[in-house]
Known about the structure:
Number of helices: 3
Strand order of the largest sheet: 9-11-12-8-14-15
Order of helices and strands: EEEEEEEHEHEEEEEHEE
Strand content: 35-45%
Shape: globular
Number of domains: 1
Amino acid sequence: MIFVDEEQFPFGVFHSTVCSCGAAPYGLRFGADITYKDITYHTFRLYNKPCDEGAVAMGANVCNTIRPVINKIAFRMDSDAAICYNQTGSMTFIENATNFRGARFWQDGTSMPGAWLPARVGITADGRHIELFIYGLKYSYTDGMFLLTKCGAMGSFSRVCRRTAEGLCLFAFVDTPGHRFATVCKAEGFG
């Protein structure tokens, strides 16, 4: 398991502890909020970055596994953000995460975003954080931007996505369904 702030992140049982951001072939950078059909979204893009090609987990090169297929992106958020992502009345723990209808992908050169992406959200075991993850991703997603529904009550995504210890917005790429590894990184673009 991988621990951040003395708590597991991302959720899951992993067969390796490869977690350095250097093992990820992509970075994640937030941009300006946008409004589409009266819904305001936070936006972020994945960008290519140098990768530690020597990182191997269970015989698989981490960079080469993540590069063609992202699979799952998880965000660690402050528990105060539960008011933004709770769509069912009471937020469940991460192991029973509920569906979240609020993540989309807008491919460059198209006139509108795609359908809602599969996403789930749940509270962590100690109740200090929530984890939002977008899963079932099928390719690299470097040719457009992700959209996350904006929560008016919290304002900026930098206020929603933060570690309590250092105030950083953390995300992870997760190899699914095998959970051979996860790479934990700091999101960029908050300023």
